[in-house]
UniProtKB/TrEMBL annotation:
InterPro entries: Auxin_biosynth/cation_transpt, FAD/NAD-bd_sf, Flavin_mOase-like. Pathway: Plant hormone metabolism; auxin biosynthesis. GO terms for biological process: auxin biosynthetic process. One of its GO terms (molecular function) is flavin adenine dinucleotide binding. This is Flavin-containing monooxygenase. It comes from the Eukaryota. Belongs to the FMO family. Keywords: Auxin biosynthesis, FAD, Flavoprotein, Monooxygenase, NADP, Oxidoreductase. Its EC number is 1.-.-.-.
Length: 436
């Protein structure tokens, strides 16, 4: 059986039958949204509000799989909740200013329930290609459906045909795992930060944390709090800012200043405040970039580290800062400065990247690294009904702005096309009546 809606445009009937019926084929009378994270949910809510039908495809078995399956337990939002809420649905008033990971997941689940959003889970997009002849997107997926028992599962190929495609898989869909000489011979436990949950199982161990971003800093702090002995690899420069300034979030202060001052001046002020509050962090091995934190974020996409206690542990020596890695040995690591450290485990806090190039067959809107070529705020709309949400490098607030724009733009096009179809059907109906 093939699910092809009766309202499929006449042009679709001209597809090659062999190709069309080789898999289960579904016409979507609206957009296909790829990804059921915060970005995809925000677009879906906007479309629901305007009466536009859609389908959300999600490869995992839940919404916000990055938050649910690939984050550590101690994680909290780094920004105040008012900067992280999705459109038309504020956080509960009793939530703290910086909600925990579990509170944020609860919020997202409430969001999906409130807007009656039901993604299609366990459906991995293999390819999405624009058919210029028919002006339609063809999205091919592998769908895993549970069999009669909870263990068995069957795979089937599905092809969705639609006018609009929303890429909402985000900047952090795949983990980055660098290659290190000798890592295979190391012999100890090696994991990416997405697999790390808590330092409970590392008590008494010497752990090498590779990376000094927010994840690297927080994992190191968590390990320290669980009586492990972390050494944090700092391979490049990093901006470390206080989480709060004069009782206000540093982000909130930056947003307020940017309304009145140029970016370079705001950067200067932030660096002065950081020096006054945190002191000279460079003497602990945390070298600052040559450009300010906001400019560095805009140009290189590197988010400043907001200190939540790791710096104090670094000062006290409980978290050891070490330079880059030369190679791994059996139970050891050799650093670029010649030091050899005895270590028991390795946590790779080496970040994430977009997976868009692996499945989207398009090379104009997205660059090779899987992010839109046009910078914020113009990176949400491409050609032929292609849209992107969650690639702004501006967190949840940037994703929300994109989602509002995308939902509004699709709704406008959908309503115009629906109106035109009704006119066409009415005209055909009148012609049919005139023949009798």
């Amino acid at each position: 059986m093939h699910d092809i809606c009766l309202n499929m445009p006449p042009m679709v009937q001209n597809f090659d039958p062999e190709d069309l019926f080789s898999r289960r084929c579904i016409w979507v009378n609206g957009p296909v949204i790829v990804g059921a994270g915060p970005s995809g949910l925000a677009v879906a809510a906007g479309l629901k509000d305007q009466g536009v039908p859609f389908i959300i495809l999600e490869r995992a078995n839940c919404i916000a799989s990055l938050w649910q399956n690939r984050t550590y337990d101690r994680l909290k939002l780094h920004l105040p909740k008012q900067f992280c809420q999705l459109p038309n649905f504020p956080f509960p008033e009793d939530f703290p200013e910086y909600p925990t990971k579990f509170q944020f997941i609860s919020y997202l689940e409430s969001y999906a329930t409130h807007f009656n959003i039901a993604p299609q889970f366990n459906e991995t997009v293999q390819s999405a290609k624009y058919d210029e002849t028919f002006g339609l997107w063809r999205v091919k997926t592998i769908s895993r459906r549970k069999g009669p028992s909870s263990v068995s599962a069957a795979e089937c190929e599905v092809e969705y045909i639609c006018r609009w495609l929303v890429v909402a898989t985000g900047e952090n869909s795949e983990k980055v795992v660098p290659e290190f000489e000798g890592l295979g011979e190391f012999g100890g436990r090696v994991m990416h930060a997405c697999e790390y949950k808590s330092g409970e199982g590392f008590a008494g161990q010497k752990v090498l944390v590779v990376g000094c971003g927010n994840s690297g800093m927080e994992v190191s702090l968590d390990l320290c709090n669980h009586n492990a002995k972390p050494s944090m690899v700092v391979r490049s420069s990093v901006h470390v800012l206080p989480k709060e300034v004069f009782g206000k979030s540093t982000f909130e202060v930056a947003v307020m200043l940017m309304k009145r001052l140029p970016l370079w001046m705001v950067d200067k002020i932030l660096l002065i405040l950081a020096r006054l509050i945190l002191g000279n962090v460079e003497k602990y091995g945390l070298k600052r970039p040559s450009v300010g934190p906001l400019e560095f974020k805009h140009t290189a996409g590197k988010t400043p580290v907001l200190d939540i206690g790791a710096l104090q542990k670094i000062r006290s020596g409980k978290i050891k800062v070490v330079p880059g890695i030369r190679r791994f040995l059996q139970g050891k690591v050799e650093l670029v400065d010649g030091q050899v450290l005895q270590i028991d485990s390795v946590v790779l806090a080496t970040g994430y990247h977009s997976n868009v190039p692996s499945w989207l067959k398009e090379n104009e809107f997205f660059s090779n690294d899987g992010t839109p070529r046009n910078p914020f705020p113009n990176g949400w709309k491409g050609k032929g009904g292609l849209y992107a949400v969650g690639f702004t490098r501006r967190g949840l607030s940037g994703a929300s702005l994109d989602a509002i724009n995308v939902a509004h733009d699709i709704a406008k096009s959908w309503k115009e096309e629906t109106k035109q179809k009704r006119k066409t059907v009415a005209a055909r109906h009148r012609r049919c009546i005139s023949h009798f």
